[in-house]
Amino acid sequence: MKVRGAVLREMGLPAPYAESRPLELTELELDGPGRGEVLVRIRAAGLCHSDLSVIDGTRPRVMPMVLGHEAAGEVVEAGAGVRGLAPGDHVVLSFVPACTTCPQCLAGKGWLCGPGGAANVAGTLLSGARRLHGGDGAPLNHHLGVSAFCDHAVVSEHSAVKVDPALDFELAALFGCAVLTGVGAVTNSAGVEPGETVAIFGLGGVGLAALLGARMAGAAAIIAVDRVRSKLDLALELGASTALLAGDAVVEELRELTRGGAHRVIETVGSAAVLAQAYAAARRGGTVVTVGLPHPGQLLTIPAVSLVTEERTLRGCYLGSSLPSRDIPRLVAMHRDGRLPVERLLSARIALERINEGFDALAAGEVVRQVVVF
Predict the structure, then answer these.
(1) Quick one: pLDDT at residue 135?
(2) Distance separating alpha carbons of residues 318 and 279, to the nearest angstrom
(3) 205-216 vs 229-237: helix axis angle to the nearest 10?
(4) Around Cβ 215, how many Cβ atoms within 10 Å?
(5) At 203, phi and psi to the nearest 5?
(6) What residue ranges define each of the domains in the chain, with the CATH number in brackets?
(7) How far is residue 255's CA from residue 258's CA, in Å, rounded to a whole number?
(8) Residues 296, 60 contacting (CB under 8 angstroms)
(9) Do 242 and 219 contact (CB within 8 A), yes or no?
């Protein structure tokens, strides 16, 4: 079938993207779903920093690629062997297609799925197929098994989670990445307990979702850190106790404020330098969780002895250490009950034609989450 999507053919084009236009809007050919796959009409897709990292080359991927990984839509067709999904179902898309049979999946850690991760790196679906083609018939790569900046997508059934149809598509999309990752970092990885102090470095969609998660977990104090004043103001509105402007002095400020450092620190920026600050901001016995994605060439330097003498813990967190089929419906229910005001993360709704300008706004830190509405 003919579809319309945004193709990235070359990484590293200079900003402003409104001028260099790295994402080309064009007509594409989309194959029907294979075995274990579904065709989804995309209704909303979020602009995430992980997409921007591919555009600017921080997160190298195979080219050319149809970007977009945070989305929600409606199932149009189910391929052979699909169970649990049918035409008309509303779904949130997940950017890790867990195969369910590899050692990581069998251990209950589907977010670390080996075949799913390998497919994402290769730019294919979980099956190894590429269902998107350019006008010349040449195959196009999928972004994280989703490629949501397109009016339709074929995805693995393991990339789609059925959700309550009463949830607006624009909000549903945010549960696929920002909410799942941010809240999961707090609850699944950091294990925030009531009464603890939490510091969050970086207040994009994931960081502010982590703030909502920390508040929901009963944190006694939440310290928000960012370089953009408007995001600090929003963090205070969402429940942060203190908002600190990022910079060289922020660690000293934070440690003084918390009398020795935070119990739990969440880093979302994707910078080794910021991660080093986040580690320094943790107290003795504290835990630092990083969800940011720095360039593969960046190296982290920390005092190695502190891992032993201060019993600090540093751990990574991918997809919020979450199982989407389990955690997305649970988080949606929390939103429905008023405990997770995800709507506060939505900065703007834009048309696909404005996607390059949208990434300019994201790069400048002017927005939290913009959603392309189809």
Answers:
(1) 85
(2) 18
(3) 20
(4) 20
(5) -120, 45
(6) 2-176+341-373 (3.90.180.10), 182-318 (3.40.50.720)
(7) 5
(8) yes
(9) no
Which residue matches tokens 């589907």? 110
Tokens of 182: 């941010």
The CA R_g of the chain, rounded to the nearest whole Å, is 20
Cβ burial, residue 211 (10 Å; 0-12/13-18/19+): buried
Instruction: Specify the DSSP class assigned to residue 143.
Output: S
Q: Which residues of the chain have pLDDT under 50?
A: none
Q: Which residues pair with 41 in a beta bridge?
A: 74, 152
CA-wise closest residue to 176 among 46, 269, 292: 46
Tally the C-alpha atoms within 13 A of residue 368's C-alpha that lie toward its C-beta. 25
Q: Report whether 218 contacts 195 (CB < 8 A).
A: yes
Instruction: Tell me how many helices (H) and strands (E) the chain has.
Output: 13, 18
Give the model's pLDDT for residue 346: 97
Q: Which residue in the block uniquely carries the two structure tokens 């506060």? A: 344
223, β-bridge pairs: 199, 242
Amino acid at position 218, single letter: G
Residue 236: strand, helix, or coil: helix
How is residue 328 annotated by DSSP? H
Give the count of alpha carbons within 13 A of 192, CB side only: 32
Name residue, tokens 């195969």.
99
Q: Residue written as tokens 């369910």?
A: 100
Is-contact 164 336, C-beta < 8 A? yes
| Total residue count of the chain as it appears in this document | 374
Residue type, 69: H
